[in-house]
Amino acid sequence: MPTFSHLFSLEWLDFQAAGITLGRPKFPVLSHQIVLAWRTLMTDDVKVCAEILEKAIRFEETGMAFFKERAKNAPSQLERRLFSSLAEDEIGHKAHLIKMRHDLLEADSVDVLAPPAEHDHDDPREIFEQALAGASDPYEAESDELEIIKGAMDIERNGYAMYSSAVEQVSSERAKEIFRHLAAEEQNHYALLKNTYDYLSEPEAWHGFDESPMLDG
Q1: Range of the domain at 186
Q2: DSSP 21-74
Q3: What is the distance between the alpha carbons of residues 180 and 165, in angstroms, rounded to a whole number?
Q4: Predicted TM-score (pTM) above 0.90
Q5: Whole-number Å distance between alpha carbons of 60 and 151
Q6: So what's the pLDDT on residue 120?
Q7: pLDDT digits (tens, 9 = 90+) for 73-106
Q8: Nearest 5 degrees, angle CA 159-CA 163-CA 167?
Q9: Domain assignment present for 57
Q10: Does 68 lie in the same domain as 12?
């Protein structure tokens, strides 16, 4: 007997929810009713994870758009380099989240969620030092620009809170591990932005990159 995932195009529904057009579904049906029916068949952990991942995809899209805009328009070369790095990270996060959500819905099991891969980016200190070394333009930060950086810090703080909360909402250890990893990524982004803020606000008083955890779990 075919499963629910065989009857309907979960890939189409999944990417449609993420705002990506893949064409029409395999059957001319009402996708909203299908999603509702599908969710009634989910296990609790699958349902919770699917809802969290859907929210996380939208969150990463918001962060990605913000960082791309700042990478293009920030007044200093240091900021443009840092925001470009953050935008690239958010693009990777979004793609990974979409794949996880697709795999989760298709298998109806959290066991298919891929464990966190080894981080393939430089750590926050290296990113900052490389950006600082490559920034040749003199720049004294204006107060409104510092407020924009604080706004970016708020984005990462909210992401950290979202993923930390997700750890408490699921019972699967595999899902907990993944959400802890995503929370740690937001922690790294926050540290990068906080050090940037501290450096630009008082360059002469800055004594080096602060690697200590800056957000409470």
Answers
A1: 44-205
A2: -----SS---HHHHHHHHHHHS-HHHHHHHHHHHHHHHHHHHHHHHHHHHHHH-
A3: 10
A4: no
A5: 15
A6: 53
A7: 988 888 888 899 889 988 988 999 999 999 999 9
A8: 165
A9: yes
A10: no
Query: By mean pLDDT, which of 13-27, 30-44, 73-87, 130-144 is the weakest?
Result: 13-27
Q: How confident is the model at residue 136 (pLDDT cuts 50, 70, 90)?
A: low
Higher pLDDT, 208 or 8: 208
Residues 6+ apart with CB under 8 A from 95: none
Place of tokens 């002469």: 204
Q: Is residue 110 part of a domain?
A: yes
Helix axes 173-201, 44-73, angle to 10 degrees: 20
Token pair for 170: 């699921």
Q: How many whole angstroms separate alpha carbon 126 and alpha carbon 103?
A: 33
Taking residues 160-178, report their average pLDDT. Answer: 92
The answer on 133 and 108 residing in a single domain is yes
Q: How far is CA 138 from CA 180, 195, 204, in A?
A: 38, 18, 13
Residue 160 to residue 179: CA distance in whole angstroms: 10
Whole-angstrom Cα distance, residue 73 to residue 146? 14
| CB-CB contact of 122 with 35 (8 Å) | no
